[in-house]
Amino acid sequence: MKGEDMTETVSGPARRGKTTVRKGLKMRRIFTKPGVHPYDEITWERRDVVMTNWRDGSINFEQRGVEFPDYWSVNAANIVTTKYFRGAVGTPQREWSLKQLIDRVVRVYTETGREHGYFATDEDAEIFDHELKYTLAHQVFAFNSPVWFNVGTKSPQQVSACFILSVDDQMESILDWYKEEGVIFKGGSGSGVNLSRIRSSKELLSSGGTASGPVSFMRGADASAGTIKSGGATRRAAKMVVLDVDHPDIAEFIQTKAREEDKIRALRDAGFDMDLGGKDIVSVQYQNANNSVRVSDEFMRAVETDGEFGLRARLNGEVIETIKAKDLFRLMAQAAWECADPGVQYDDTINDWHTSPESGRITASNPCSEYLHLDNSSCNLASINLLKFLREDNTFDVEPFRDLVELIITAMDISITFADFPTERITETTRAFRQLGIGYANLGALLMATGHAYDSEGGRALAAAITSLMTGTAYRRSAELAAAVGPYDGYARNADAHKRVMRKHAAANDQVRTLDEVDKAIHTEATREWAEVLRLGEKNGYRNAQASLLAPTGTIGLMMDCDTTGIEPDLALKKFKKLVGGGSMEIVNHTVPRALRKLGYPGEQAEAIIAFIAEHGHIVDAPGLKREHYEVFDCAMGERSISPMGHVRMMAATQPFLSGAISKTVNMQETATVEDIEKVYFEGWKMGLKALAIYRDNCKVGQPLSVAKKKAEPVAAAPVVAAPAVPAAPARPVRKRLPKKRPATVTRFSVAGAEGYMTASSYPDNGLGEVFLKLGKQGSTLAGVMDAFSMAISISLQYGVPLETWVEKFTNMRFEPAGMTDDPDIRMATSFMDYIFRRLALDHLPYESRAELGIFSAEERALQVSGEDPASLHTTEDVAALAQSAPVDQAPAQPAVAAPPVIQIQSAPVDATESHGRRTADAPMCMTCGTNMRPAGSCYVCEGCGSTSGCS
Questions:
Q1: What is the tens place of the pLDDT at every residue in 842-878?
Q2: For the region Disordered, what residue ranges are annotated (predicted)?
Q3: Which of 469, 789, 605 is nearest to 797 (CA)?
Q4: Residue 704 and residue 935: Cα distance in Å, rounded?
Q5: Per-residue confidence (pLDDT) for residue 921, from 0 to 100
Q6: Could you report how far apart the first and last alpha carbons of the chain are, in Å?
């Protein structure tokens, strides 16, 4: 148990005479030592951060000599330097050290805490200051991005990333919604809103006319969001629109995005540019928001019993239409199958866990669905790096974790005291209810490292225990803060409801069944915390109406060098690591070796398994790996991916211990059915989730890069009237050799500092017929292998193998050296092979063929970004002048009635890397650095520069 002197607040007359001491909290040291500044125990080093423009290779950011701890990765340091350091680059005012950044932020927290009586003594304030600096510098936790952007600067001190707005059935309110949303988008945050108060298109106006309905007003908001976001760093607006399931326009709302997806397909097939970021995609509506249906228990029970359900007028609540609940539920699942929208939010479950119902219902959420509270409110977030608490013996360091939660909750509550907010209504509500959102990242890595399968009873028990301890400690600290600086303004009115929800959390904690000593130790401490929550809350009340949720942790997850975001499992078993000198390398996630040690594999056997993963990207048939251990290495994607219900079960295990909800999308295979989606939505309700969204692979047309246009359907051959008496000999291609004198180009190139030369020779009619590569020293093994490879490629081209076949096969091949090149058209290459065949494609393939493969020159990419058609660069003559390879001359065939068979070149089965690329194809392209973003909860994050499409 904690020492009483470390947790009690100090107030009232002291026992030594009549001297009084101020109210405040006693702070505990977790990681720091008295008399030692936390920075003094860190080895600092200077680095150069240089970021290039992916379109033309020019330098778009350069700051040399920045200072970071030596254990920070290149990626984490780059992201913090480019996104969070303040001051004009190149001026003395520009921040250049992580120390300056942390000091800027922590100084405001500590000074505000002193001014408002948060600390019992000056010593406690110093402990708070030092512990925050230590934990931030050691990547133990991180505040959300707005804190790093704004705190301690001359800008408004906005600390919240998540906002909820409100709209009433009045034109003035609707226009205010447009304005408030725009202000929030401009500041780089996201918001959500429920439109159910707006009259449906089936109801009358007071003037006698028919109402427009909420879906029509969504058009204006969508256009506004698209316009504002088009000037930002990401194409997807952070925006959520919710409609209640009993709204008369619910069917139209459900189908809005699915209908638009049909339109996208039709326009694409008609030749319009409907790729993500394409010039014609802007004509499609409703693409800038996530849509969710707010379903009630009444509706879900009607679905369960195949009953009827009434749609109600907005003004008087009368039923104006009765429908079959199952039909509407099927419509939701069908639309989600077609375009991933709408998601679902379970209204009665959400409001059953509401701490402040006397002040209003919870009607909406933020864009990623984890923040759920009153209208016109906001929430600031902070997330803990769970892997920092895993000891070498694979036990969880319970006490430091608990103490860190105390520290973070104290700091987050202080931030509301000094924070600025985008509107007056949000200011009033947030100050009155002081909503906080503590959460965590790296759960997936923690589970794998401890030998737990993500979809297992053991994995869920460990996740539940950690989440329960986190939220229990957060509310216990909130009760202590209430004694020190007072409960939240809305507490008195909602005291009974708030205490009831605390009892629900405590009761859920009692239902957790631990499976081993690690779970048991965490759960035992969580049980103590919940007992203290109930005791102190009864006495003091609570400082915060909300304490916890699970956010996507996109940018801040990269800042903390986390392997996994939020509640997510590992995305795949391999990842890319940036190198100090530029470039990157693909490595097996470091949690894999630790998991193998935990499972008892000796060194040599573990090395063989790791080598197999490095080569194949999965563990199936890895040498010596027991089949019962396969599930430990299951990931969100890849050869063995976690089932949709596995994700749902993990959400259900942690949801009872969260004030808010969970940002997570349940990924489903392309082959998933509408019935599969219905099951996920229905089981999510049964299991007590608050919100749920799905994504079926390849359900959207728009892709981050230009997708292959539909290839012409093969023309059916005329039916054969009679078979020949003698079978025709199969036609064989004939090699067409190059003339002795032929045009050639020599390209000198560099990939991650490694140089090479390529000579490409053509036929007189410009068809490519020969490629020779020089890599490595003459006589070396590498030089010999490349000579043989060159001859094989050259002969195949002369026999008529299309260049596209080789380009398709060898681009995106990954091995070292990989990284930056000196070619303005190809700024990054994943290997020599990747660079060589991209260069050959640019030099020898027509634009249409390259567009299908997603290969563009710098000039073509620039036109795409500006909204112009890159095809305008190429005339018909240009296209005709390019040939893929030698024409195929057929050898004389035996006389026959039947036409000779068409020779087809079939590719080998795709490897794990190619498969992984397809599975992330629907993630948007980062418009800052040009790389594919990856899923992070319900949002997306760019691992290259840290940009996100939602909460961070």
A1: 988 888 788 877 788 877 776 665 556 666 667 544 4
A2: 1-20
A3: 789
A4: 13
A5: 44
A6: 34
**pLDDT value, residue 716:** 38
At 710, list the tokens: 């539909």
How far apart CA 822 and CA 120 sit, in angstroms, is: 59
The tens digit of pLDDT for each residue in 565-611 reads 999 999 889 877 666 655 566 778 889 999 999 999 998 999 999 99
Q: pTM (2 decimals)? A: 0.77
Count of Cβ atoms closer than 10 Å to residue 5 Cβ: 9
Q: Which of 453, 457, 439, 326 is nearest to 386 (CA)?
A: 439
Residue 290 CB: number of other CB atoms within 10 A?
Answer: 28
- The pLDDT of residue 232 is 40
Give residue 931's pLDDT.
60
The length of the chain in residues reads: 952
Residue 147: CA atoms inside 13 Å, Cβ hemisphere, count?
29
Catalytic residues: 366, 368, 370
Return all residues near 464 (Cβ < 8 A) that are at least 6 apart: 512, 653, 654, 656, 657
Give the integer Cα–Cα distance in Å for 560 and 73: 9
Mark the ranges of the chain whose per-residue pLDDT is less than 70.
Answer: 1-22, 53-57, 187-188, 226-237, 274-283, 286, 577-585, 701-732, 766, 777-779, 862-873, 875-932, 938, 943-944, 949-952
CB–CB of 822/800 below 8 Å? no
The per-residue pLDDT for 858 is: 79
Measured CA to CA, the distance from residue 714 to residue 347 in angstroms comes to 51
Beta strands in 453-595 (DSSP E): 574-578, 584-588
* Domain positions in the chain: 4-159+368-555, 166-359, 744-893
d(CA 224, CA 435): 28
| 4 DSSP assignment | G
In Å, the largest CA–CA distance within the chain is 120
Helix, strand or coil for residue 134? helix
The number of angstroms, rounded, from the C-alpha of 943 to the middle of its chain's C-alpha atoms is 10
DSSP string, 45-104: EEEEEEEE-TTT--EEEEEEEEEEETTS-HHHHHHHHHHT--S-TTSTTS--BHHHHHHH
**What is the structure's pLDDT at 646?**
97
Q: How far apart are CA 845 and CA 628, in angstroms?
A: 49
> Are the CB atoms for 699 and 340 separated by under 8 Å?
yes
Locate tokens 């060098």: which residue?
561
* Distance between CA atoms of residues 386 and 463, nearest Å: 10
| pLDDT at residue 333 in the model | 97
Spatial CA neighbour of 442 closest among 599, 596, 552: 552
Q: Let me know: does 508 contact 526? Beta carbons within 8 Å.
A: no
Cis peptide before 924 (omega within 30 of 0): no
pLDDT at 805: 87
Residue 840 corresponds to which tokens in the numbers above?
């050959």
Please give the Cα distance from 407 to 789 (Å, whole number): 60
- Cβ-Cβ contacts under 8 Å for 358 (sequence gap 6 or more): 493, 494, 497
Whether residue 408 contacts residue 471, with contact meaning beta carbons closer than 8 Å, is answered with no
With beta carbons less than 8 A apart as the criterion, state whether 54 and 827 touch. Answer: yes
Taking the C-alpha atoms of residue 739 and residue 762, their distance in angstroms, rounded to an integer, is 9
Interior angle at CA 654, CA 652 and CA 659, nearest 5: 110
Q: Could you confirm whether domain 166-359 is CATH 3.20.70.20?
A: yes
Token couple for 786: 């490349």
Nearest to 294 by CA among 236, 235, 361: 361
Closest CA to 547 of 693, 657, 461: 657
Task: Tell me how far apart the alpha carbons of residues 329 and 680 are, in angstroms, rounded to a whole number.
Answer: 12
Residue 374: per-residue pLDDT: 98
- Exposed / middle / buried, residue 507 (Cβ in 10 Å: 0-12, 13-18, 19+): exposed
Output the pLDDT for position 714: 39
Token pair of 707 as six digits: 């997708």
> What does residue 324 show for φ and ψ, rounded to 5 degrees?
-80, 120
What gap in Å lies between CA 490 and CA 496, rounded to an integer?
Answer: 12
